[in-house]
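Supplementary Text 2. Reproducibility record for the structural model of the 96-residue chain.

All settings were left at their defaults, and a single model was retained for analysis rather than an ensemble. We include the record here because the model underlies the residue-level annotations in Supplementary Table 4.
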Amino acid sequence: MIKISKLTILGSLLLAFPAFSADMVFEKKENILLKGKIASVKTSKKFRNLEACQALCESRSSCTAFTLDTSKGSCTILKNVSKEVPNSNATSGVKQ
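Retained model, structure tokens:
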């Protein structure tokens, strides 16, 4: 009985507090490549779409922004943003 009660309480707490990433809002910047301190660069096919690149940023507490560069096939995760550069092959997102 005690184990069931603990599981019920834990389950209730998980439902009461939604995942942090669900609350994240990004300002989308089309045709903009962001420069700054790089946390990570991924070039695998898994991260070559906007949703996957944003999800990677959401999963990192140090991420403040991301850029998907379709010409390079890369998803760059940034710790900070120091500059915005026009680039027709890039779409970026900055945490609000």
